[in-house]
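Example 593.
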Amino acid sequence: MSKIKIMDEILANKIAAGEVVEKCVSIVKELVENSIDAQSTIIKIELKESGIGEIKVTDNGIGMDYDDALLAFSRHATSKLINEEDLFRINSLGFRGEALPSIASVSLVSLKTSTGNVGTHIIIKGGKIISNEKSEARKGTEISVKKLFYNTPARLKHLNSLYTELANIIDFVNKISLSYPDISFYLSNDGKEILNTDGRGNLLKVINNIYGINITKKMIEIKNNDDEYEIYGYISMPEVTKSTRNSIVTIVNGRVVKNQEINKIINESYHTYKPDDRYPIVILKITVDTSLTDVNIHPTKQDIKFGKIEELKELISSTIKKALDEKMLIPKIENNVSEIPLYNKIKPVKEENTFLNVNLNENQDLNIIEKKENEEIKLDLDYIKEETESYQKNIVEPENKVPVMYPVGLVKGTYIICQNEDGMFLIDQHAANERINYEYYYNELTNGSEEIEMLIPMNIELPYNEYLIVKQNIEILRGMKFNIEEFGINSFIIRSHPIWLPNGNEGVAIKKIIELIVTKEKDFDKNKFNDRVAMTVSCKASIKANDNISIDEMETLVNRLRKCKNPYTCPHGRPTIIFYSNYELEKLFKRSM
Ligand code: ZN
Ligand code: ZN
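Predicted structure in complex with zinc ion:
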């Protein structure tokens, strides 16, 4: 190649770099994906200053020989081999094939690689090879990227704060280790270990590495299939939620994808089990014949299109609902329940336990380094499983979802204290009553209700625009068993109403229902409408906080709650019951340590 041509190429790479290398995470992504392609079973990612100082990825993969190592940095050569697999990556990462040369054009790259015979060590600065020699023959690849954007300082300003760059990388490495539980991933920043998975193929163990034991104990395994799709994974109990969708991870045929429809159906499957604007932790693996998927939607969004999406949604939704339905979901108070924030997890490296301090320069194969004893790991997992299962107790009879318990008093006119042989329960009387009413109303609304005549017909006057909307939708109200007619200017008269309307609160309930009709969405969905009506009216009809009810009333309330389909949360997803076990009470009072 002539000098001019090479210059052209470097320039082209630099221009491309502006488009493809925007964040440190895109470099990490590219290097880690390369390591996975090279069949590595151990991948180690070491960062300095969140990757801005250095990104170093070391693997035990098949490595490259001298010629391939040089080719890897040539723009034309890398667009070789495009099969369907690669195509998926091009789409999911957006720039595969041109990334390495682009990265090298704006940084200082050192590549040590070997197929197990002779090793190669290449140093490239600003896209130009500055050194090129033989090196040690340890099988695998070590690639380090430093001085990022040293020759295009304007781009340096486009990088995010150290915190954001690191958070993006952690998020990527977490998700890739969930996709590949049989690869051991190690991630550190400035020498501090962030993630270290064992690569033994156990998904629950990876979840434990990422989220910690307290959350892992609250994960429910799910597994199901239909003719087209196979799903497997873990979903969090409703008490564990996050403020963003980011902990819903969907992995299709081994690759992380983002799909709005799937995220939405997962969240909807938890409806009334948790607030709709909080999101569960879900790791969902979907296996499907590739002929049913189309990855060619958006070059960088990692989106995927499914054939037979309705079937898939139904499969996911029914599986999650069934899993929630079968578990005991009363939140248990534990002394040490606290979510570990991401950055508290960044702990100093333990010298003896990681393979970080193993000297890689001694022709050592990473494969032979056993990190923990087999037994030790198995014990760990058994413990998690046992704890999880004993707590979640499978429920057979729906009546047994909430154990028998006896009210002993009321705190602040709001929380009912109950006890049984297992411990103490606190029940929020409003939330519990709301749940009971909600299920009753929803049932009446769906299955049809009796109608009852009003002693005094009710006259409702509305602003003209609302009057028109109600007039257009009057059949909805009649379907609900309202006897309603137009009556004078901008007015309706109601002579009878469905029997379930709360006694004494009919007027308020009717106004709420009319409000829901006025604000209803264009594509009217009867089930969603019934859900909203039941939710709104049940709130209005339930005993409030600061309402001192008698022990008898408490008993009735608890017994009716026990008969609910989902007794654990109010329709808005807030808890109705909290449990303090005898053990936990004793621990709190230091009677048992
Ligand atoms: Zn309420
Ligand atoms: Zn509520």
